[in-house]
Amino acid sequence: MSETQTTADVDSEPAETSDQQSFLSVFARTVRNDRLALVGTIGLGITIFVAVFGPFVLPHDPTATNLDQMNQAPSFVHPFGTDRYGRDILARVALGARTSLIVAFVGVAVAAGVGVTLGAIAGYYEGLLGEGIMRFADTIFSFPALLLALAMVAIMGQNWYNVIIAVGVVYWPIFARITRGSVLSVKDEEFVQAARSIGESDFRIIGSEILPNITAPIIVQGTISMAVAILLESALSFLGLGVPPPDPSWGRMLADSRQFMTHAPWWTIAPGLAIMFTVLNLNFVGDALRDALDPHQGDEMEATR
């Protein structure tokens, strides 16, 4: 038995490598053939580059005030203009990109970790435990996302960690639903039955046999959830309950610029375009990932349009 298992493990390594290469080649082909996928991939890459390197490369300190340069229009020195404190808006948009991406990525990672774990348990154990988990998920999901996040941050306090926790709590039920449905669709397949027949534990079956075969919808949902999480973080910051100062946030920049929209519109336009640009690109990349990981789903969606 051990010799057979060893041979199977050795044979599975090239298969896994082949699957990874196949996904990368399919994704690359999707990006080449789909203009929106190409735009989204390049645009998201630009956003990540700006978030990582922008604050170090740009000449202006995003938090430094200069009252001699208040509300200056876009110029060569300040391409996006300045705000009422003389701070460079381009530098603040770049640092705000880091804020939004960190909150979205970590928050969605928390949501995926909790949701996938509970969803896998609910799908594998369909009895009282599974039903209880899904009823709890439905209860959380029944609350409006912004209202639930506002309540959580207001109760726990305004800081980075609580905003990330709020994002995770709001979106984990989505991952739980997707994971449970996917587990139900594969739990009775032959490879799962074979794992049971050789005495593998439920934990190992879920982690080693089932989850690797249902990653496609989870990855796609993660990309889409990141886009929605950026909107949620921006809304929280706009209402004054997002990431606290002095860290810039696109939502708070929009809130601070409301009274200057008529005579300093550049202050509003820059963060607004940044939010739209990032969210659209994440959705384009999500569509490309869906087509690469689950082409049948992509064909079905195209047929219904």
Automatic annotation (TrEMBL):
Bilayer topology: Multi-pass membrane protein
ABC transmembrane type-1 domain ranges (all copies): 97-286
Broad class of where this protein is predominantly found: membrane
Keyword Metal-binding listed: no
Transmembrane feature ranges: 36-58, 101-124, 136-154, 160-178, 224-244, 264-285
GO biological process: transmembrane transport
Record bears the keyword rRNA processing: no
Pfam families reported in the protein's UniProt record: BPD_transp_1, OppC_N
Entry keywords, A to Z: Cell membrane, Membrane, Transmembrane, Transmembrane helix, Transport
Compartments in which it is found: Cell membrane
GO cellular component, one term: plasma membrane
UniProt xrefs under PANTHER family: D,D-DIPEPTIDE TRANSPORT SYSTEM PERMEASE PROTEIN DDPC-RELATED, OLIGOPEPTIDE TRANSPORT SYSTEM PERMEASE PROTEIN APPC
Family: Belongs to the binding-protein-dependent transport system permease family.
Protein name according to UniProt: ABC transporter permease
